[in-house]
Sequence to fold (280 residues):
Amino acid sequence: MKLSELYGLFVDTLNKSGFAEAESDSRLIFEYIAGIDRVKLTLEGDRELEPGVEEKLKAALDMRLTHMPVQYITGYQNFMGLEFMVSKDVLIPRMDTETLVEEVLRLGLSNVRVLDICTGSGCILLSILKYVYGSSGVGVDISDGALGVAKANSEALGIDATFIKSDMFENIPKDERFDIVVSNPPYIRSDVIGTLMSEVKDYEPLLALDGSEDGLKFYRIIADRAPEYLNIGGVLFLEIGYDQGAEVSALLYAAGFMDVEVIKDLSGLDRVVSGRIGLI
Ligand code: GLN
Fold:
């Protein structure tokens, strides 16, 4: 089959099956599975595809039709301009989470130490380390699978970081101090998980989504323990759900944080809460 015909077939099939992003899904599959990017699609549309390549692409389309997220099919997601490998062991990095990283970058820091709780693919920690001069850091996660992905990303991107298996703060050395603590913990209320789209609830790791009955379990632990690991003047940044700004802010104030702020994402929804450890 000709390249343009096969591409058309992909877009049509996905459209007919109700996929909202039929074109972008098809593009990503062609690009990552067969190395055929937007330019090649236009310039080489009349080219006949080798049967092996056509088969691989069709297998990818079949996976997408089961609602497997396109990133688990291609194995990659771009985040902060960097390509992160993903597997079913990690949450797919979200554009909303870039808001958190950008807030850290806005501080204009250099030479800081960063701790990432629930690091997953490592996308938050590694992008901060990439863009903050002289920074170093530690990422922790309870999942061996996630730590494997985070380490692979650190190596592939050439960004040095330490990864530790730890249930929240449990295995972080007691004498370690950080200037920045970041986390995008699981924050979805348990009763909401069943209502999420198939891509999320059937494919992304439940461990990375479920924030317990009220969605706040991990924020409580972080508010309680992060001060022990923060230098004076150090700042905590948490990603939150759109309706958790008030509750998470209250948790931070109660734990002794100052200057607590709720920051919106590009859609205008509350997305990040930050707080500082001060002298008074
Ligand atoms: N820190 C990772 C991310 O933002 C994983 C978050 C999670 O597993 N809840 O993508």
Residues 3-66 form one domain. The longest strand covers residues 230-239. The mean pLDDT is 97.
